[in-house]
Amino acid sequence: MDPQALLDSWKDYVAPSAPCTAADMDRRIARFGEIPASPRAFVDTYVKGHERVLYSVIGSGVTDDPNFKPKIAAAENFHVDYIIAPPGCGAALHWHDSEEVFVVQSGRWEFDWIDGASGDKHTVSLNPRDTISVPPFVHRAFRSLDGESGMLVSILGGKTPGRVMWHASLADRAKAVGAGFDANGMAHRIGE
Hints:
The protein is mostly beta strands. The chain is built from three helices and 13 strands. It has a single domain, classed as Jelly Rolls, CATH 2.60.120. The protein has a six-stranded antiparallel beta sheet, with no helix packed on it. The chain is globular and about 70 Å long. It starts with a helix and ends with a strand.
């Protein structure tokens, strides 16, 4: 490459910053102690073995709780949540219509998924800083192997992610504890 052309190329890669005041940026900061948390963000949390706390960090994400809002509302095409679960607990098999990336922050986590072509269920264990990217429409589940010391980050793609679709194996277990959905698709349990 021509040395002068290399140096001159900077004219195409320098640009001013967009406006962003301190107040603007303050609305885009999520300090852990201020992040909204819910132990009932999804219908499966009523079923033993799926207890967990979801921290809604950025973007609307998906939830079965109409009152659960993120700390940072502004998100363009992605949503971030933190998940903490007791040992052996986590999400039941479900899918989203967009990709979902999980990054293990601490602890050990196990992930299951179902191959829709063969029906085979697969499992992989991940350690801190390991990452898995699950394609859209693939049933996935996860569980903490270590409990409260473990934290998982979920990054869900899409500007407005659709509803969670659950595997049929959850329906009877959820019905047995009186859990279901209202007319708006929000999770409730009989008597609560």
